[in-house]
Design goal:
Oligomer: single chain
Number of strands: 13
Number of helices: 3
Distance between the termini: 40 Å
Radius of gyration: 26 Å
Helix content: 10-25%
Strand content: 25-35%
Largest sheet: 8 strands, mixed
Length: 293
Amino acid sequence: MVAKLTDQQSLPSALIVFSPPLPRNLPYFFILLIGFTLNTSSALIAQSEQERIIPRLSHRPNIDGDLNDWKKEAFSEGEWDMDRIKKSNWYSPKRNRLMLDAGEDSTELDLLAEYYLAWDEEYLYFGAEVKDKVHDVQESNHEAKRWYYKDAIALFIEFPIDSLPEKFESGDHAFCFVIDTTMPDYGAWWRHGSEEGSYQETPLPALSVDYQIKMNPWNRSKADYILEARIDLKSTVGESSDSWTGLNVSDYVGLMIVHCDPDGGEYGGHMLIYGQGDNDATWTKMRLADGND
């Protein structure tokens, strides 16, 4: 705003000498300035809104197939189905697809899931509440490492995170859980890279994981389930990386969820959330935070 001078007022000589000339197209100049400010503010707000935070739990929950004692403290972004994934940045029709068998009712709910993440100084916690229509953990050419041919959920993480695009080299891990209540030795699986090589496939060591599966928890469908898992990262991530420093507030991890749902098919269907595949450069960056953040 420019003040109007009266006949009795005059500008100090110093101001007259050093005041820069105003642009002739002053209104246009201010429009550009306001537009730049608004765009910058919007970008900063959008950047802030996009940051995803995994909270630290205030207590150590029981691993019993019931998430109610910690899910309100955990990270979650609501329920995911294929319609929602199609609107996301990581959607790819080649990767994200569900099975539709001959004669199947296409209007029936196929797969709907909500995922939960949290941590403390020793563990990473992962939970899922899933509504499904077919429970399928059988396949004709079974191999222990082929969790992706069965009803299964895998949590992919990169820690410590870096800027290099890699595919299960050192720092990349997938913790995979087959939805089989008999808890076979391949039911909790570990794909990872280390100094020895990439794509190493082994069962998750029994002392490194505690998980439970509860089928039909809402008496809605025999194919519905809850998965609850606690993963000891020191004995997995820490043992396979010389750069392990433990979990700390403000650390970042790269993360993707792969949900497998074959519904009687062989290779079956998948939903990928927070990433586009094995390339860890596509995984979403998330910050570990104190529960009060």
